[in-house]
């Protein structure tokens, strides 16, 4: 029963997080849709571990190294999901900027 409670609380927390992400993008006072790029990281994060689990047999010694690499890559993707909004918050993005003449940089 403890496993089901943990699963329900994790799914509830994920649903609340996605709701706040969509709400933060859809509010007309902000009118910024850059945070939706975080959803790519949410989709990509389980892929390395799923591939490693499918490719590796549990009886050989190389399985441990392959799973550890998959966990390392998954950790990098999750950390990037936290880092990307920080980079977007510090970057001054504007609509009228071009590569040759940018009036936003001061």
Automatic annotation (TrEMBL):
<feature type="transmembrane region" description="Helical">
    <location>
        <begin position="36"/>
        <end position="56"/>
    </location>
</feature>
<dbReference type="InterPro" id="IPR007262">
    <property type="entry name" value="Vps55/LEPROT"/>
</dbReference>
<dbReference type="Pfam" id="PF04133">
    <property type="entry name" value="Vps55"/>
</dbReference>
<comment type="function">
    <text>Negatively regulates growth hormone (GH) receptor cell surface expression in liver. May play a role in liver resistance to GH during periods of reduced nutrient availability.</text>
</comment>
<dbReference type="GO" id="GO:0016020">
    <property type="term" value="C:membrane"/>
</dbReference>
<feature type="transmembrane region" description="Helical">
    <location>
        <begin position="68"/>
        <end position="88"/>
    </location>
</feature>
<keyword id="KW-1133">Transmembrane helix</keyword>
<comment type="similarity">
    <text>Belongs to the OB-RGRP/VPS55 family.</text>
</comment>
<keyword id="KW-0812">Transmembrane</keyword>
<protein>
    <recommendedName>
        <fullName>Leptin receptor overlapping transcript-like 1</fullName>
    </recommendedName>
</protein>
<feature type="transmembrane region" description="Helical">
    <location>
        <begin position="7"/>
        <end position="30"/>
    </location>
</feature>
<keyword id="KW-0472">Membrane</keyword>
